Inverse folding.
């Protein structure tokens, strides 16, 4: 019996969030936890909730999602992060979107997302509507390997847009945000390096300022008041850090004395 829709959750030590995430996906034909060899209770929770567990070592996020697309046999794949929730309204909209979908129908669907940052639902700064291309027709979608983080879908066909959002419990504390962004800047620096980008002396000022202006003004981060100022400022700082790490990559390893 073929599976119409599989909800896939990528995990690595997600015992805190996974149970509630899988509960919000109980309506899917199959729930799959694609796990990077967690050493907490992630796998036990997944099995207790009735999800299928596939263990697969993570190289980068784009490769991990491509591996899931190749492995999980279903007509449609809905990617959901462990710290995201699918509301009943979104579940109904997803079902309606894929019911009777033919070859001329969209090959994927964008889904908006509410991001909660330290308890505050963000309204601007790029954190809303924050559309994610996550509902994909298997065989017509793959992830661009040139973007190992902040993944980009290459879609063979058109994409539609749903109205109901994911709920994303993004960061509980500023420290958690800083730890995660610290890891992301290493990926970003490597991408810039492979693209041949070089930082100029003025880059360390111009790019952080541009990022702050983009998020706080153009993307209306000011709508979140102090939260917007805080997180747009932090994104500006991590833009500086990414270019500093890019400089270190071009400089190469420090010679031994």
């Amino acid at each position: 019996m073929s599976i119409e829709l599989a909800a896939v959750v990528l995990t690595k030590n997600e015992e805190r969030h996974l149970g509630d995430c899988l509960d919000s996906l109980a309506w899917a034909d199959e729930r799959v936890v694609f796990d990077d060899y967690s050493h907490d209770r992630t796998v036990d929770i997944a099995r207790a909730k009735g999800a299928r567990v596939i263990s697969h070592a993570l190289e980068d996020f784009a490769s991990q999602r491509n591996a899931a697309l190749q492995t999980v046999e279903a007509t449609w794949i809905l990617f959901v992060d462990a710290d995201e929730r699918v509301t009943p309204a979104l579940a109904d909209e997803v079902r309606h979107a894929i019911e009777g979908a033919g070859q001329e129908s969209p090959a994927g669907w964008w889904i908006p997302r509410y991001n909660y940052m330290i308890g505050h639902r963000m309204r601007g700064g790029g954190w809303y509507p924050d559309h994610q291309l996550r509902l994909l027709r298997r065989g017509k979608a793959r992830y661009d390997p040139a973007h190992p983080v902040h993944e980009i879908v290459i879609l063979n066909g058109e994409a539609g847009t749903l109205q109901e959002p994911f709920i994303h419990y993004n960061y509980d504390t500023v420290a958690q945000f800083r730890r995660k962004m610290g890891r992301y800047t290493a990926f970003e620096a490597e991408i810039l390096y492979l693209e041949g980008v070089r930082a100029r002396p003025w880059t360390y000022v111009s790019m952080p300022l541009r990022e702050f202006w983009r998020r706080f003004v153009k993307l209306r981060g000011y709508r979140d008041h102090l939260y917007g100022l805080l997180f747009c400022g932090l994104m500006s700082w991590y833009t500086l850090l990414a270019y500093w790490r890019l400089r270190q990559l071009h400089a190469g390893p420090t010679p031994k004395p």
